[in-house]
Specification:
The protein is mostly helical. It has one domain (about 30-290). It has helices spanning about 10, 35-55, 65-85, 95-115, 120, 125-130, 135-160, 175-195, 200-215, 225-235, 240-250, 255-290, 290-295. The protein is globular. The two termini are about 35 Å apart.
């Protein structure tokens, strides 16, 4: 008779996951969380760093693409909106505002898009290995965070070239990134398990993310939005983050989200939505994690 793994007796389980007292119970797969905090952090960091290196290992330019892509995208958008359509000429520092918004939204878009298929793409690991399942979508968000930091390092010199002077308020970008990471992580958790149940979620999120791009104050400041629809734009969890980033990083004289839309629409409701999305994502992933291998 083989010896039981260490800790199996304490957990009251035999070798196949059935209660050791002989009573039959539902066999649950690995949970969303599990193991020590140190092991969890090490696994998350290792998974993220490996994925980040692997993403660009097969390309000639490698990590350069993480910087080149947003700069090219910014150049095209700026050419069309400012050069052809003539929009933004009366907006102070429109160029720096635009590229900052694009970089922040790219993090949100990339993290959620990759998290969508993160669990299904790791089907072999999910079926065969015992580890905290939540590491999968979290590592995707962290990997996108690495890309965000590289992009910001490329953007800061452009700010200086455009005439912006460093200010202490630039440190507020840390708060913006943390808020954006909270929202992004919550959505990533929801999307990753929802896609396992139905691949239609992928098409729906592709459409919704494009709508968010144009419905959020990325290409325009929120005060330029007609008052009849301004409340719809302001209530998005992305809006106060992008607008406050503009105030802290680009133009201190620009109106804050609260000044434009009021405290409820400009801050409280978007904040509550962000917290609710993150809490629901954690709850949903924790509920679905033990059954996710069966659904693949």
């Amino acid at each position: 008779m083989t010896a039981k793994p260490a800790g199996a007796a304490d957990a009251g389980l035999d070798d196949i996951g059935v209660p050791s007292d002989g009573e039959l119970g539902a066999v649950r797969g690995p949970s969303a969380f599990g193991g020590s905090a140190r092991r969890f952090v090490d696994l998350l960091w290792l998974s993220s760093s490996i994925e980040f290196r692997a993403r660009y290992s097969a390309t000639f330019l490698g990590y350069v693409w993480t910087v080149v892509r947003p700069l090219i995208f910014f150049g095209l958008i700026f050419l069309v909106i400012r050069g052809i359509l003539g929009f933004g000429k009366n907006i102070p520092n429109y160029g720096p505002m635009l590229i900052l918004n694009l970089v922040l939204f790219q993090y949100f878009s990339e993290a959620t898009a990759r998290a969508l298929r993160s669990v299904t793409s790791k089907e072999g690991l999910v079926r065969k290995m015992q580890f905290p399942r939540i590491v999968i979508p979290l590592s995707v968000s962290l990997t996108a965070g690495f890309t965000l930091l590289l992009n910001l390092l490329a953007v800061f010199p452009l700010f200086l070239i455009s005439g912006l002077e460093p200010r202490w308020s630039w440190l507020g970008l840390i708060v913006i990134i943390l808020g954006l990471a909270l929202l992004t992580t919550g959505l990533s958790l929801i999307l990753s398990v929802a896609f396992v149940r139905s691949e239609d979620v992928g098409e729906a999120w592709l459409l919704l993310s494009r709508m968010l791009f144009y419905a959020s104050p990325i290409l325009y400041p929120i005060e330029k939005v007609p008052e009849s629809v301004r409340s719809l734009v302001a209530v998005s969890p992305l809006s106060p983050l992008l607008e406050q980033a503009r105030v802290w990083m680009i133009d201190p004289s620009a109106p804050t989200p609260v000044e434009v839309a009021g405290p409820w629409l400009g801050l409280i409701i978007p904040l509550l939505l962000t917290i609710a999305i993150c809490a629901f994502g954690l709850w949903l992933f924790d509920r679905e994690a033990p059954r996710v291998a069966e659904a693949l």
